[in-house]
Structures are given as C-alpha cells and as structure tokens.
Records
---
Amino acid sequence: MSARILSASVLIPVVLLAIYLGGWFFTLALAVLVVLGQIEFFEIVRRKGYRPTENLCLGLSLTLLAIQQLYPQLANGAFVLAGGLVCVSLLFRRQPPATISDMATSLLGLFYTGYLPSFLVQLRALDGLGYLLLLTFACIWASDIGAFFFGKAFGRTPLTPISPKKTVEGAIFGTTASILVGLAGAALLGWSLWPLTGVVFGLLVGVSGLLGDLTESLMKRDVGLKDAGNLIPGHGGILDRADSYIFTAPVAFYFIDFIVLGRLPLP
Amino acid sequence: MSARILSASVLIPVVLLAIYLGGWFFTLALAVLVVLGQIEFFEIVRRKGYRPTENLCLGLSLTLLAIQQLYPQLANGAFVLAGGLVCVSLLFRRQPPATISDMATSLLGLFYTGYLPSFLVQLRALDGLGYLLLLTFACIWASDIGAFFFGKAFGRTPLTPISPKKTVEGAIFGTTASILVGLAGAALLGWSLWPLTGVVFGLLVGVSGLLGDLTESLMKRDVGLKDAGNLIPGHGGILDRADSYIFTAPVAFYFIDFIVLGRLPLP
C-alpha cells in the first residue's frame, strides 16, 4: 500500500500538469502511456503464442495520436486505413506465415490500446483549460476509490469470475460515486439540462471505466497473469492503471461533443 | 467454368441494377452480401476453435450499414462504439469464459467483413448515377480478369505462398489493367489532373483489391480450406468473390472524396 501511495504522489501531479498544459504536452504524455500499454498488451498476447505485428501497431498508434492532435477530423478515416494496413502487413510474413489470430490480435491491439485512448486528445481539446477532461478523470477516480473502499467494507456478492476481487456492492457504489461527481461537475460547468446530462455522463463514465477494467482482466486471466506488468511500484503495469480510461475516452468525448455541446452532426 | 459463367450471368445484372438504383436498394443488396460474408468469416474462425460473438457482430454490421445510408457523418464514431461493445459483450460470457482470441476475432469480423465494405454505401452516394462506384468496380474487374488470363498465359514466378495460383506476372498485369481503366474513367468523368488522379486511383484499387484477396486467402490457409464456402456455383463462397472489394471500399471512397472532389477536411 505504501509503494502505491508513493507512486501515486509522483504520478498525480504529472497527470494534472499534462492536463493543465494541454496541446502537445498532453499528447506526448499520453503517447508515453499508449506505447507502454501497447507493449504490455502485446506481451500478454505473445504468451498465448500469437505473433502480432507489434512495431507497425506502435508506429500507427503514435501516428493516430499525432493526427488526433493536428487534424482530429481525419482521425477516424485514418484509423480505417491503419487497421487495413495492419491486416495486409501480415500477408508479407514468411516462416511461418501469419495466422488469423496474429491478424486479429494486432487489430485488437491497435484498436484497444492505441485508437480508443487517442480520443483523450480530442477530449482535452474541447475546452481551453481542460475542465472537461479533468471532470472525466474525476468520475473515474471517484468510481475506482468508491468501489475499492465500499467494496472492501460491504462487498459480499462477487461481480464476475473474471475479476474475483470485484463485488456487485463495490460496482454499484463506485458507479454512484461517479454519478455524484458527474452531477457536481455538470452543475459547476453549467451544462444545459445539467441534472440529466450530469447523471448520464457520470453513469456512462462509471460503467465504461468498469468495463475497460474487466476487459483487461479478461485478457490477463486468459494467459494466467495477475498483473499486466510491474512498471509502477504497487500499481502493477500501465494497463492495470490505464484500463479504466480506454473505453471511457471515446464515450466521454462523443457524449460531451454531441450531446452536451450540441454538435451532433445531423443534417 | 460453365457453372462460373452461368452464375456470373445472373449476378452481374443484379449488381448493375443495385448500383444504378442506389440509395436503400444498393444498401440492402450490400447488406445481404455483408451478412453472408460475415457468416462465412465466423465459420472460418470457429474452425480454429475460437468462439466469436457472431450475432452481435451481425446486428452491429447491419446497424453500421444503415448509419452509412442515413447519417454517413456518424459512421466512424459509430464504429468506435460498436467495436467497444463487441469487446465488452464478451465479458458476460460464462462456461468457459471468453478468451483474447474470441474478442480479437470478433473485432476483426466486425472490421473486415462489416465496417470496411460499408464504405461502398458512401462511395455510391457520392454521385447521382453511381458512375464513381461503377468505375471502382470496373477497376477491380479489370484487375481480376487481367491477372487471371495473363497469369494463366505468362505467369511463371509465384507471388506468395499464401495463394499458390497467383503469379507476379498476373499481379503486375492485373494492376496495369486497373490503372488503364482508372485512366479511362478519370478522363471520361473529367477528374481534375485526370492523368495523375486516374493512374493513382487505378493503382490504389488494383493493389487494395489484390491485398483483400490475399487477406482472405491467408485466413482460409490458416484453417486448411480451399474455398470459404460454396454458395455460388463455380465461385466458391461469398468471401471468395467479395474479398477484393473489402479494402478497396474505404480506399476508393476516401481517395475520391478527399483528393478528386477536393473535400479533405483540413482547417
């Protein structure tokens, strides 16, 4: 626990500074996490005997991050082409030739550890001071902390065999904490229809964070690992810390951009 | 060969009619192909022992096709959320729990046999009469026919162990045929800088068609199959016929929309 707190006290100020500075500062800080997380993902996958096209995925993930920063309106089209490139790159592998799993896990790596988190760049760029990104992170933190302490004290019912330590009580309380933070944030930021949009935002972030967490647990469980890595003392690997942010990134971005800011591009 | 010609003489008028009518007619005709192709893909994948989330992928692929028709500007964001849904849906599978491969092949199925071909809907919608889609198809047909006959007559050098019948000579001549058709089409349609844009378009379509073809061969080879199915007499399965169109769809759409029509959304 003390290693955990020590690591957090170094990392949290760095994260807050990157959010505050925004722009390329934030994108570069995120790029470090994306690269480390993707390397961990491919380590997990290689333990199953698959041979994904790791270097190409890393290069394409960094390219997608740069595109999210420079030309966000091109990011989705760029992913389509990047995903196609990943598939066809495996055609040129000999001895032994690539398999369906090599191709599928390469695409999953690009999507899950590269493309999904890249939406944090667009989320940061939505406002000048990073309040929207900070609110998203605050919801995730509230959900994690709420689920951890409440689950420890009152958790009885196991949530899923994938992640034996999680309880239904913890998940419910974590999501409630995320909703309360979402509600407070929506009121402070003066979102239109704030009681409704705040609750929905907190719910979406809480649930997508939990699902991201469980997705990584499923992957680790499949290869019989406890932690994805041991990079941060007391916290396991990067993916063990960053998994909650992965699905949340596009969900929070599209909800705020389309619904809260009213920029749903309908004709 | 005669079953092949008979099937073609029924299918080609249907394809031409769907292209001519456009709109929902085209989207529905494509939806039939997408569903059949995706079922074949998942049959291939199940032969490797993986258990992808087939019904969800089919439902999401049809939804993505409908979104390409109704709100094309939302299609890319919808794919991000659909891909996320596919991943998290596997969290709820018990006995035995889902594996990384189940998740990765589900995502590959959604991407390769659902999302990539859905760009044909946007390609058809670019002009009123379907000339741009017809030109794309004409390039693929020229490439296929050119590679087949020239490869048969002069092919000596094997192209790749993935697909033993393909030769370097066939691939070069097929791509040349695609470039010639692209050049003619660009001249007829009066594309700006037509000699350049026509050659690049023909090259992109020829190469992406060949790569789509080889990608499907890689998958079949991985499970020891000759044809992906036996739906069309003399033509193998749907994927055996449709594989050339899969990567070509987004490549042709983005090239025409961004470069030829000059709608690259840069600030």
Note: Chain B has a mean pLDDT of 91.
---
Amino acid sequence: MLEPSADELRDWGNSVTQFMIDYLGGLRDRPAYRHTSSREIRGRLDSTLPIRGTDFNSLLKVLRETIVPFSRQNAHPRMFGYVQSPGTPIGAFADLLASTLNANLTIWRSAPAPVELERLTIDWIRQILGFPAEADGLFVSGGSMANLAALGAARHARDDSLGRLRMYASNATHFSIAKAAALLGIGRENIRHVAVDESFRMQVDDLVAKINADLASDYIPFCVVANAGTVDTGAVDSLREIREIADRFQLWMHVDGSYGAFAILAESARRLFAGVEQADSIALDPHKWLYLPVDVGCVIYRDPEAARAAFAHEAEYTRMFGEEADEAFV
Amino acid sequence: MLEPSADELRDWGNSVTQFMIDYLGGLRDRPAYRHTSSREIRGRLDSTLPIRGTDFNSLLKVLRETIVPFSRQNAHPRMFGYVQSPGTPIGAFADLLASTLNANLTIWRSAPAPVELERLTIDWIRQILGFPAEADGLFVSGGSMANLAALGAARHARDDSLGRLRMYASNATHFSIAKAAALLGIGRENIRHVAVDESFRMQVDDLVAKINADLASDYIPFCVVANAGTVDTGAVDSLREIREIADRFQLWMHVDGSYGAFAILAESARRLFAGVEQADSIALDPHKWLYLPVDVGCVIYRDPEAARAAFAHEAEYTRMFGEEADEAFV
C-alpha cells in the first residue's frame, strides 16, 4: 500500500473522484447537521490499535458510512453556523498535489519552487491590502497562530520581562488575542479592554485614557490590537485613528483581520479598511473568505525585520554558506 | 471553477491521478535536486496579482513545468538530505478527501466524526507510547508547535512572571525549544544547557548540579526537556533517570520525540525509550517516520487537565449548554 502500482493509483483516483462527485451532488439531500453523540460515533469506529494496514476501499467505506454522515456539512446550502467555508474541489485537488510532493517549506533549499510560490502568494495578499513593497509575511496554521506570531514580534520589539507591558484591544476582540497574551507571558491581566461604541467599534478616547492611566502607573504600553471585522458583528475599528494614537504613544499596531479583512476585495466595503496598510502587522485567514482548505492562516509584517529579530535562530544544520539573501534560511 | 460539474470533476480527477502516476513513475529519472536560484524560479512564474481565474490544466502545467522540476524530490531514492519523508499516495488521497469535507476540528459540534477520528488516532499514539489511559493530546502543525504547546502548559503550571523560571535541556536539543522559551516569555537566557556524554546523551549529574546552583541563586527550576532522538545524532536521553530527577525537584518533564520517538515501534529500539510514558508531555511528528503529509505534529499530555488550564478560554460564541463532557469545546 506504500508503493502502489499505476493501476492501483488509477483505481484510487477514480474512487476518490467518484466520492467527491457523489458527495457534492447529493449534498442537498443530506441534513446539514445530524444530532448524535460521542458514544454513537465511537461505537461505529473500530477503535483497536491497528497492527496491519487496511485496503483502500475499506477506508473509503468508513469515510462514506461514518465520517461523512456524522460531520457537519459546511458546504450545505442550509449551513447557517458561524463562519466556515465549504471545501472546494479545486482546493481539494491542490491538497492532493501538494501532499504528493510533500515539500518542506521551512527553508528555501528544501523546496525552492514551493517557497517561491509562498512568497508570490504572500505578495499578492500584500498588494490586495495595499502594504508597501517591503512588507512581507508567511502562512501559518490559522488566525490564532497569526495573532500569536504578530504579538510575539511586537513583544520582542519592546522586551520587558517584569510584567509591566500593557496591550489594548476592544471588548469585541477575538479570544485568541487574550490566549496569545497568556501564552507569550505578557499575561491576560495586562490586556486592557477598551470600550466599544454602539457599532461595536473601539472608542478611541477610551483607548487614550487607558494608555495615559497606565503610563501614570509605570506600566509600559507597547501594542494596540485593532479589529478589521470582529467575529461577533463584523465591526471594523477606525484604523487611521488608531494608527495616529499608536504613533503618538509608540505602540505596535496589530490588526486582527482573520475574520473580515479580505472583504477589502469588495469595492463596496473597501473604505472600511482605510489605513490598514499602516498597521505593523495583520492576521488573516485565507481559509475563510478565500475558500481555501483549512488550515491556512497568514501574517503580514510591515517591517519583516521585526519578525526576523523575534523568530530567527541559527542551528548547525540550518547554516548555509555563500548563498543569496533570497535563498537563506528564514 | 468554484462549482464544477461532475464531468469537470472527473476530468480533474483523471488529470491529477495521471500527474501522480507520471511523477512517481518517473522519479528515478529526475535529479533529486537541481541547482537553481530564486531569480530563475521567479522568472518562470507569472507574478501578476491575478484578477481572473485560471483553468485547471494551465495550473497543472505550472506545477509540472516549474514547481516539480524546481523542488527537492523527497521521495527520490538518492535523496540524502535531512529527515523529510516522501509524500505517499495514500496520504495525498486522504488530504483530498479531508479538504473536500473541510471540517473544522476546533470544537466537537463543528465536526463530530472528524473530532472522534482525531481522538481515536491520538489514543492509538498514546497506546504506542505506553501512556496511561487518562493521557490525552491533540494534533498541531509540527514538532516546534508541539514543543511550544507542551512548554506552555509546563510554564502555566509554575506561573511566575519575574524571569526567575529556569528550564533544562541538553546541548543537543533542537532549537525549537530555545525558540519556545523565547516566545513564551521564559527567556532564552533561562534555558540551562546541560552537558552531554560521548553518546550525546544528557549528563544527569550536570543536570542536578545546574538545578542545585539555580536553587541556591533563587531561581525557580520548573521543567526539564529530555530528547527521544536528537536531530543531529538520534541520541535518546536516559528517560527514567531524568524522571527521577524531575520528581526529586518537582519539575515538569517534557520529552522532545519529534524526530525519533516513533522508533519505539521497532522492537530493536524499544528499550531506548523505557520510561517515556512517565513524561508529563511529549512532542511527536507523525509527518516524519509515520510518512504522513506535512504538516502534522502531535503533543501528548500525561495529565490533560494541565493543558486545559493553560489553553482553555470561554467566549460567547463557543459556549454550549447541556452537553456531555466528551462533546464540549476543548
């Protein structure tokens, strides 16, 4: 099964394609969600640690009879749950191709062309958002990781280990920001929750008041998180105003655009995002409104050197000699 | 292209299957690695931000003519680079199926059967390693994330924000441990590098000496990282001895098994891992010796409550009522 023949591959390819055709074609006739329990599903799966392999068709049977019926059908026209893009055939085939190559993109020399593809597509996202040409970024596993990575760079830029760093985000901010603050050792207690107005946008006068109060108490304000589409209501904070305040107090400005920032592609919504290109970092989730397979998040840094300073590390086996900067381990 | 017909899907399925057959069949005739430059590859890619879609066959042509030739062929019989498992057809087809469903496994109710599959396979890994039935874990994006998650839980268990926490790892430890310490706010300077013996295994007397010296200087020793297969030489530390020392000084014992721990499946190597099931956490990379597609890492916690305490968060839209513990948001 590890080295199938061409004929076997053809059979498998036909089987998965037929599965996809049947699944997508029959989606409207399924319930979008089926009430079930953990116990019911476990009872249908063979839970024994397998010692031998299983043939391809038996695996597909488990998928067809147990996994699919007991999944939420994200592509169903009556799937009214929170944001979750359906899988698309083009994305699924792309995943098959990517896993056939199984490239390791952690270093240019491991996968030259796949790394260039990542750089190219990151640059497209940079252009969509209007960031300057020097901005750069990378793909991560999701919006939470993108927020963590950006806040990690922000914290590194204002290194202080005495629990005096303070960051600011509105009440409507996604919980991954608080989790990132906890994980990074900033501490949940050092997030100041700024009040929102009737449209659930950050009240900038409350932001300024909180920063001034912290300065007066010997804290170190270092970062403000603006929302470009909150998860609860889609509110977009006043990015230009927040940038001005960030400049005034020398704060890192991070934008959490995981839920909504790709709405900038719509002419009608574009004005909401004015100033986004002035952020120091932004988190995005291409697996939401770009309909890519989970899990692909993205972080863009206006000054990629700030991220490099936070994350670079040199190990014996990652060292390269005589290479161009473009081909370095980053 | 977002809603292809059954005939289009059949065409695409045939094309990608044929691609896979050609690629795997012709692998021995390709160079494992081709000297190239960033500039050369970029010159071959259309770098314009695309406004319209591209047809499927044109995308496959780019893959065939530019991406594949300028990739490292990890499955090539003469690929002598560092650990990187080749893609397997079975894994590639599984990726296609997973992306067709595009399940979101962050919460049980988003994807009941896929979450149960994750739990089942995590439990298989638990059994392979010999951890007690109460142990639990999850899949993450790779070994570095698994190390970060485990050390995050360890740090949370001994919360101190004054820069006094100290952790211990041998000189031969992977750099992701130092990066995790930096990211978590523990500080790179608070990793104590324990000397190794002639087999590159941690010298436990040096470990004890360093812990005692730190205690004498008012630091708080909280964690020791043992290696179950170092990246440079595959050395496995004396896990039982390290467990004893961890118990004596009340340290969290984390094992980095990302590179080598699945060697426990080989009867001949099994004895090297004696005591691994006593660790508080272990990081693994199923995408290495289990030949799964990148990127799948795994972290197992002996006491999953410790991880829950570090990572749980309740948000309005994640709250559930009247559900069984097995079906909760975790």
Note: The beta strands of chain A are 136-140, 165-170, 191-194, 220-227, 252-256, 281-284, 297-301.
